[in-house]
Amino acid sequence: MLNLSLNLNLPLTLADFFNSLPLTLQFTHCYGEPMALPHWKIGRALGIPIYVHASWFVVFFLVASSLASGYLPEMLPGLSVPRYWGMGGIAALLLFLSVLLHELGHSYVALRYKIPIKQITLFIFGGMAHMGKEPPSPRAEFLIAIAGPVVSFILGAICLGGVMAVDSLFARSGFQGLVVLGGLLGMVNVQLGLFNLIPGFPLDGGRVLRAGLWALNKDFNRATSQASLAGIGFGVVLGLIGAVLMVGTWSGALGQSIATNGGWLVFIGIFLFSAALSSRRQAAQRTSLTSVTVRQVMVHRVVTLRPDTTVQDAVDQFFVPHGFSGFPVCEGGQLLGMVTVRDVQALPVALWPWRRISEIMHPVSQAYCIPPDWSAIQAMERMIQNGSDRLVVMEHEQIVGLITRSAIANVLQLHGSPSR
Ligand SMILES: [Zn+2]
């Protein structure tokens, strides 16, 4: 059980446990989709750019101020106010470092599996490592997910072990400040590890759950959907516990300090709930795209351009009248390349009559082609990989169709999102 007194031998009650929450916060964190809010790059680690999101500063201030005005004066009486704030600031920075190391734990294992990590962002709920793709196997998923909490537990053990050693060796000496900060940091790391092991996706524990379900049923999307359902459930539970704590405080049954914890839990519950809900929706979309083949979605009558057509003619006779944003370029039944509106736009208008399509097209590669019996989700993944919004459908070295992102989006809208 958690001992939050930092004396390491005081009895612990549930009230003590909840009292500790505003100090340490509880970081729901996950790795997944990048966020659109302002963030700043502060450095690199393992070759990964590290960003701090605007909302992190709220956490920094909350932690520093709650330590400086409540916790530290209580634990270490008789120091000056600037000293408390200095220590509060240092503790907040060390907390920041703890979250970062937790994320680097995930990232290190992910990189071993050749999964690119685009960036790590620290934000109000902790940290997030943005993975470039999904783990290749349940085993990879499990190891990547568990690495973060393992790092947190190791850090926690080092801090608490160090504090106990210092405490027993130099009792009542000038190390009290160090002991208090070290103990606090140790507890924060242990809590960080424990909290993230809650088995609701997209928390680490939810990813462990998904790895298990994935290994069991051999169905990644279904596992995501089920683990997300657990995430939705835990989001609701956390929110309800928070609400009960808040009501208890207002009715006078619980101490005033617990109101903040209740509010924070509600906040986290909502965050987990919405993250899990969107993961479940995405899994449902992927599932419906898995059952649709490229042939079912593709355009059968493909309009192609000839390589010697001038850009001006292509615009006047193809782009404008057909309204498509891209065309395959063919000659004698052979696919040579693809040309899109973006390629045309990159060329100054004055040059349009003087340049030929062959000069601005992307030479064709396997990346721009797909067989008709592949699934729509595979087409989508290929488009995302090569940054294109259309693929040429090839069968027996013949063009048989064209599949576009917008056609796939239409299928999703028509089919809706079947839920499991
Ligand atoms: Zn984690």
Question: Would you write up a description of this structure?
Answer:
The longest helix has 33 residues, at 258-290. This protein is α+β, with helices and mostly antiparallel strands. It folds into two domains: 14-290, no CATH class; 294-415, CBS-domain. Helix 4 (81-112) packs parallel to helix 6 (176-196), helix 5 (138-169) packs antiparallel against helix 6 (176-196) and helix 8 (220-250) runs antiparallel to helix 9. Strand 5 (326-331) and strand 6 form a beta hairpin. It starts with 13 loop residues before the first helix and ends in a 5-residue tail after the last helix. Mean pLDDT is 78; it is low at 1-35. A four-stranded mixed sheet has the order 1-2-3-4. Strands 5-6-7 form a three-stranded antiparallel sheet. The chain is 57% helix and 13% strand. Bound molecules: zinc ion (ZN). Residues 29, 102, 106, 148, 196, 204 line the site of zinc ion (ZN). The site of zinc ion has 6 residues, from helix 4.
Q: In short, what is this structure?
A:
The chain is of the alpha+beta class.
